[in-house]
Structures are given as structure tokens and as C-alpha cells.
Design brief:
153 residues; mainly beta; eight-stranded antiparallel beta barrel; 4 helices; 46% strand; globular
């Protein structure tokens, strides 16, 4: 029910440090977008991410912290999915990161090896895929709205 959803506590779905392995491996398709491939240190998650490289460039060998939340609200309520300048301006969470995007998980697939999951999300056309152990990625539900927050280590 909607009442239950509103009472759900906002939560950190996943957080890890990643190292950029490649940038634009297959060539560059857009002037202001780079596709990075990175691997996390703790959970060994493989990430492919389209990032606005004009405002947040990442280079091969750089490390960054990535966190995925279902809400950025300070009051522990679930995100409404509607733009609210007060929520954004008052979010303590946003102050801790340098690059934030909001999007939707559109596909979660078990790998041939059923202990692995592939998670696919879109942030206004900027795509992200995560591949890793089910234990690490099962917290990210299909068809959910998420925030990806990044800062360089």
C-alpha cells in the first residue's frame, strides 16, 4: 500500500570504491559523454557507466566511491519521484558527493552462473550496467528509482 511505501526507510542500496579500467574503449560517440569501465575493490562489481565527462571527467587509473540510494531525503521517507527543490537543497547526502544522477533500474537479470546478477539502469539516457555477485546486487530492485552518487577518492 502507499502508506507502507511512504513509511519505508530510505536506504543505501550499495556502496563501494571503484577503479577506472578503461575510458571510451570502443571509441567516443558523444562529445560530452564518456563510457567508463570500472571494477570495485570490496564486492568485485564490474561497472560500465556513461558519465557527463564535461562536468565530471574520470581517467583510467582513477578511483572513485559510488553509492546507490533509493532516496536522498533527510527524513527517512521514501522518495516521491517528484522534483522538490527543498529536498535537494536540504539534502545532507548530496553535500558529501561530487556527481549525482537520478534514474531508473530497467532490468535485473540472473547471469548464466546463477550466483551473479546484471543490473541495468538509465539516468536520462546515460546508461549504467553492474555485474556482480547476487549477494552484493540483490538490494537493487528492478523497476526502482535510484540515485547514483560519486566522488573521487
Amino acid at each position: 500500500s502507499d502508506v507502507y511505501k511512504r513509511q519505508m526507510k530510505s536506504s543505501l542500496l550499495i556502496q563501494d570504491n571503484f577503479e577506472v579500467n578503461t575510458v571510451n574503449k570502443g571509441g567516443r560517440y558523444f562529445d560530452k559523454v564518456s563510457r567508463i569501465e570500472a571494477k570495485s575493490f570490496l564486492n568485485m562489481i564490474e561497472m560500465v557507466l556513461d558519465i557527463n565527462s564535461q562536468i565530471y571527467p574520470l581517467k583510467t587509473g582513477e578511483t572513485f566511491e559510488a553509492a546507490i540510494y533509493n532516496s536522498i531525503r533527510n527524513d527517512d521517507l521514501e522518495d516521491t519521484g517528484l522534483y522538490d527543490a527543498n529536498e535537494i537543497n536540504n539534502s545532507v547526502l548530496l553535500d558529501r558527493y561530487e556527481y549525482v544522477v537520478y534514474g531508473k533500474v530497467f532490468k535485473v537479470v540472473e547471469d548464466k552462473d546463477v550466483s551473479n546478477l546484471n543490473v541495468y539502469a538509465s539516468f536520462g539516457g546515460l546508461m549504467m550496467s553492474l555485474k556482480g555477485k547476487k549477494a552484493s546486487l540483490k538490494t537493487i530492485p528492478n523497476d526502482s528509482r535510484i540515485y547514483l552518487l560519486i566522488k573521487k577518492c
